[in-house]
Each structure stands twice: as structure tokens, then as C-alpha cells.
Amino acid sequence: MIKASDRKKRNLFLTFSDEIKLLRACETEDRRHLRALIIVAVDTGARFGELIHLKKAQIDFNGSGTIYGLLNYKNLGGDKQTRSAKMTPRVREALLDVINNPPPKAFKVQRGKKPSEELVFGISNNVRTAWAGALEDAGLTHLGLHFHDLRHTPGTRVKKMIDLVDIANALGHKDPKTTAQVYINHTDQDLIDFARAVEQAVEAGYKEAMSEDVKPDLESGLIS
User: Fold this and answer.
1) Total-model pTM
2) How far apart (Å, rounded) are the C-alpha atoms in residues 37 and 206?
3) Dihedral (C-alpha) 58, 61, 67, 68: value to the nearest 10 degrees?
4) Domains assigned to the chain
5) pLDDT tens digits for 139-189?
6) Nearest residue to 91 via CA among 134, 124, 60, 128
């Protein structure tokens, strides 16, 4: 949903206040799939392509809380081809919701073909219409946000909390360069630490945003 040539030019990410507004704009049944996509993207840094191709079998809900084998379909030189991610509580809740109760937009026949039942989100193309509508209803159209900007969000939120090397590993970046990737061994605990740091940053950000009179409906499940 963003051109490869634009990757280095953009410096946008989702603030906590804007996230609250955007998620509230996605509380309609027609945008429930988008709400889940946004939550997973801002807490894991997953690309849109990784999410729409995500299969139920890749998610371990009962054991390690891991999303395995996120695949970079863009095949860009600066990124790893595959990676795994740990689920924050709200990511787990969002994924279980769309799996157990598929949204109206899921598994619809497109061009004579229905998405595979193995998929988590059950969509086969972009969400530009839902995304544009949510931005408009949230009053955020002027920001020019792309869905890919959500991928910039978790690393930005935790950059003062954990090492850059571990953020790069969690997001699937090959940089920082050879030393970090070849001589520093990344463990499962690194992914757990990243997910915990994202969860802490979200909680702190929501608390600050609400203190500024932006009060989400706690019953809507925006905060775990």
C-alpha cells in the first residue's frame, strides 16, 4: 500500500491520540477487520502483505504466543524475508476475534474466487476504501497516513526502552548491518521483550492521551 521508492522519504507514524481516534472510527461492524489489522500492525510492525497472507496455522495462541513465519512479499533488499513476532494481549484478542467471528468483509468472493479458509483475515486485496473512510471519520485525512506508516509505529514507541539491535530484529530489518545480524544471537526472549515493551508503551501512551481529555470507551476493548 506504499511504493518502495517512498520508504526512505516518509517519517510518519501513529501517535497514541491519533490511534485512539482511528480505532474508534473502526468500531463499526464493516470496519472490524480493519481495526484488527491496525492493532496487529502497530504492535508487531507487520506489513500489510504479511497480514493478508497470514494463516491460522502460523499462530500459537496456547503456547509461546508467537506469530510464526511472517513473510516479506516485497522481497526488498533491506529486510529479512521471514520473521516471527510475539503477540501483545490486544493483538491476541484481535486475532482471536476475527478468527472466531469473521467480519462481514472477510471471505467474500472476489473476481470469481473466494479467499482460503486457512487465512486469518480472509481478504485478498487492499483495504483502501475502509482505510480512507476511517481516516476521514477520525479526522486524520490531513495527515496523509498510509497503512505502511503503522509499521514505523512500534519501533518509534519503544526506541528509548530497548536496544536498537533488538528492534531491528523484531521488525525484520537487516540493518544495523553485519555486526548486529551475524555476531549478535537473537533469541526467543528478544521477541518476548519487544512485545512487552510495545505493551508498556501502549499503556503509557493511552494514559497520557486520556489525561488530555481523549477518552476511549473502555468497554470497546481498545485497552487490554
Assistant:
1) 0.79
2) 19
3) -50
4) 14-212 (1.10.443.10)
5) 999 999 999 889 888 887 887 788 878 888 888 876 654 323 333 356 688
6) 60
